[in-house]
Design a protein that fits this description.
Glutathione_S-Trfase_N; 2 domains; single chain; binds glutathione; 4-stranded mixed beta sheet; Glutaredoxin; Glutathione S-transferase Yfyf (Class Pi), Chain A, domain 2; 4 strands; 8% strand; alpha+beta; globular
Length: 223
């Protein structure tokens, strides 16, 4: 049975793509123009939300990026990319896995929307500025942890690092990487140096070119 990932360039679906590469699994990568809701309406038949990711593995269909990583890691690399319930850092793992999406990525989507995606008359600079500050303040809470350890939990790279790592990638697209604190900036460098991260980056552009999808990363679109 083949795993299928529906993906838009550098959207949150980059999380499961990176996880698939870390795990060395076989999968089919289906690139969609962003946003699929406007540019590929048949996708609603696959995911009624119209959002990416959609990870399909047999009868399993997951439309949350952090959950996709947790699922892949637990199924294919327990005690490795996944942190097991019996490990002391299990709680920290779940916390950072969800912190990456709920606390770090959500405020950035407001920046993206109200600074860049909305037509000029609907933009809200105050909202964008406030949520950029919100994001950077939440991000600073990682500083003491990263001063003590290379990764977020369990003394190794895990799916929690993929979840938070995507939030850092998005921040880079939004021009906020210069405001990372030193430990966060060094952590981001370490994540980008991973071969699986680099493969995922290259593969997504190769697949987009092969599938006739525009080569602009979703967060860089300025509709
Ligand atoms: N919480 C979900 C959010 C999914 C989501 O909103 N994905 C965005 C891409 S980053 C999307 O598909 N947006 C298109 C739209 O809203 O129409 C996750 O973590 O996967």
């Amino acid at each position: 049975m083949t795993i299928t990932l529906y993906h838009c360039l550098s959207a949150r679906s980059f999380r499961p793509l990176w996880a698939l590469e870390e795990l060395g699994l076989r999968y089919e990568l289906k690139l969609l123009p962003f946003p699929p809701r406007a540019h590929h309406k048949p996708f609603f038949e696959q995911n009624p939300l119209g959002t990416v990711p959609l990870l399909v593995d047999g009868a399993t269909r997951i439309s949350e990026s952090a959950a996709s990583c947790q699922y892949l890691a637990a199924r294919h690399d327990p005690g490795g990319l996944d942190v097991s319930p019996g490990e002391p850092d299990y709680g920290a793992y779940l916390n950072y896995l969800h912190f990456g999406e709920a606390t770090l990525t959500f405020p950035q989507t407001l920046v993206l929307r109200y600074r860049f995606f909305e037509p000029p008359e609907r933009r809200q600079p105050q909202v964008a500025d406030d949520y950029a500050k919100w994001f950077l303040a939440r991000l600073r809470t990682l500083e003491p942890r990263l001063a003590e350890q290379e990764h977020l939990c369990a003394g190794r790279f895990s799916a929690a690092d993929i979840s938070v790592g995507y939030a850092l990638l998005l921040a880079q697209h939004l021009g906020m990487a210069e405001q990372f604190t030193p430990m966060v900036a060094a952590y981001w460098q370490r994540l980008q140096a991973r071969p699986a991260y680099q493969r995922a980056q290259a593969l997504q552009f190769e697949a987009a070119a092969a599938q006739g999808v525009p080569l602009i990363a979703a967060p860089d679109l300025r509709p």
